[in-house]
Amino acid sequence: MPVLVASDLDRTLIYSAAALGLTMPDLRAPRLLCVEVYESKPLSYMTETAAGLLTDLGDSAVFVPTTTRTRKQYQRINLPGPSSKYAICANGGHLLVDGVSDPDWHARVTARLADECASLAEVRDHLMKTADPLWVRKHRVAEDLFAYLVVERELLPEDWVKELAVWAENRGWTVSLQGRKIYAVPKPLTKSAAVYEVARRTGADLTLAAGDSLLDADLLLAADRGWRPGHGELADSGWTAPAISALPERGVLAGERILREFLRVASPAG
């Protein structure tokens, strides 16, 4: 039976320059591999060692990139190793099979959202009315499934995020603050549901997962084993669960450690 490895990407396996967390002297900094270019500029990185580990992992397990990114944003990433047959985008709203969204899965997801929570239009209107242009840089809707804001963190009132979370909770939505982005996501839109579907299709009898944010909690809880880095929403809140290992590493070196853990468990010799 195959081992399924479902991992969040941003700030878990890949890192922007601002999120690298290179605290060592420059001469001891790891060599980095650029894995994403946006508007002709490098955007995301992993260490060269992590790139080798990910390549090895692709030979030992079914690796499933699992991200809140839209399909277009995900397709900018050029990960090392074998191409993944499956990928999960838009926080579970799209299940890609050989790069193409599975229409039946997407239809099931959208039907569930319509039945179980407030509409995207209501949530977007609330964001537009309550978010202050002083600290909001962009309003965005992703794949007609959820909304997010790009903000100036140093100007963002902490109470506003808490009030938004309470408002959203009462309407079947959840709020996640990740770097400069505030996500408002319907509760039924989950990475875990899509991972269960991939496990069913592949016949995997062991699922491993990693993630750093509130939107990854359900993914970690759905796995047989999981890891979270020493940074991010989950670390900041002290979140843990019985099958989840809280790693001390922060920044890009956490991505390297997570891949070592995946390989240790997934490889026949592990």
Automatic annotation (TrEMBL):
The keyword Kinase does not apply. The keyword Hydrolase applies. GO terms for molecular function: hydrolase activity. Keywords: Hydrolase. This is HAD family hydrolase. It comes from Streptomyces lancefieldiae. The lineage of its organism: Bacteria, Bacillati, Actinomycetota, Actinomycetes, Kitasatosporales.
